Amino acid sequence: MLLLINASFVLDIPIRLINGSNNSSGRVELSINNQWGTICGSGFWDDEDATVLCRMLNHTSGRALRYGQFGAGDGPIWIAYLRCQGDEESIFNCPMSFNEQRSTLSGMFIPRNGNRHMCFSHNSDAAVQCYDSGT
Ligand SMILES: [Ca+2]
């Protein structure tokens, strides 16, 4: 079952949380060039990245849930090796590897046939649990 829990539009890139256990958790999905995909949730996906992502969705902070805890998505694994420090306004301000030739937003996500990063399995798709202050 796919359940749309939360959505936000940042830089014309919609973000949603799918298949979570509550209304502030789920697998992270991004729509780029009108194609929904995921973030690699292996080693580099951590609480600092999750906090920046959750703030983009109007939450206070976040905890990283790694290795596909909310299931495997499909489509491209758009982002891997995300390296936020935690105080960025957008994950797109953080160093990362794209499933793309270009690594800057000005080039805007021209899809390639192959991944530039080495994260190939949706079994490790990134997920988050977001938190709101006072709750
Ligand atoms: Ca990271």
In short:
With 135 residues, the protein is mainly beta. Strand 2 and strand 3 form a beta hairpin.
Account of the 3D structure:
This protein is mainly β. The chain has a single domain, classed as Mac-2 Binding Protein (Roll). Helix content is 7%, strand content 32%. The chain has one helix at 47-56, and strands at 4-10, 13-19, 25-32, 35-39, 61-65, 77-80, 97-98, 127-131. Strands 1, 2, 3, 4, 5, 6, 7 and 8 form an 8-stranded mixed β-sheet that branches. Strand 3 and strand 4 form a beta hairpin. The longest helix has 10 residues, at 47-56. The model is unreliable at 1-10 and 101-115 (pLDDT under 50). The site of calcium ion (CA) has 8 residues, from helix 1. Calcium ion binds at residues 44-46, 48-49, 82-84.
Walk me through the topology.
Layout lengths: L3 E7 L2 E7 L5 E8 L2 E5 L7 H10 L4 E5 L11 E4 L16 E2 L28 E5 L4
Parallel strand pairs: 4-6
Antiparallel strand pairs: 1-2, 2-3, 3-4, 3-8, 5-8, 6-7
The structure holds calcium ion (CA).
The site of calcium ion has 8 residues, from helix 1.
Distinct ligands, ions and cofactors found in the model? calcium ion
- Regions with little confidence, pLDDT below 50 for 5+ residues: 1-10, 101-115
Give me the CATH fold name: Mac-2 Binding Protein
Q: Label the overall shape.
A: globular
Major sheet summary line: 8 strands, mixed
Secondary-structure element order, as H and E?
Answer: EEEEHEEEE
